[in-house]
Amino acid sequence: MATTETKPSWRSRLLWFVGIWAASVLFMSVVAFLLRAILLP
C-alpha cells in the first residue's frame, strides 16, 4: 500500500464506494430474505 502514496485519494474513494455499495446490497438482500421468510411461512 506504500507504493500508492502518490495518488491515494481516488483509489481510497473508489474502495470506500465499492465497500459501501456491496454492504448495502448485501444488507438489503438479507432484509428482503428475512421479510419474505417471515411474511410467507
Q: Can you characterise this structure?
A:
The protein is mainly alpha-helical and 41 residues long. Helices cover 78% and strands 0% of the residues. It has 1 helix and no strands. The N and C termini lie far apart (49 Å).
Average pLDDT level: 87
Tally of DSSP helical segments: 1
Structure summary, number of beta strands: 0
Radius of gyration equals 17 Å
Shape: rod-shaped
Which parts are unreliable, with pLDDT below 50 for 5 consecutive residues or more? none
Which bin fits the share of residues in helices? over 70%
Strand content: under 5%
Order of helix and strand elements from N to C terminus: H
User: What distance lies between the first and last C-alpha atoms, to the nearest angstrom?
Assistant: 49 Å
Structural class estimated from helices and strands: mainly alpha
Sheet having the most strands: none
Task: Tag the structure with descriptive keywords.
mainly alpha; 1 helix
What is the fold's blueprint, element by element?
Blueprint lengths: L7 H32 L2
Short summary of the structure?
By secondary structure, the chain is mainly α. The chain has one helix at residues 8-39.
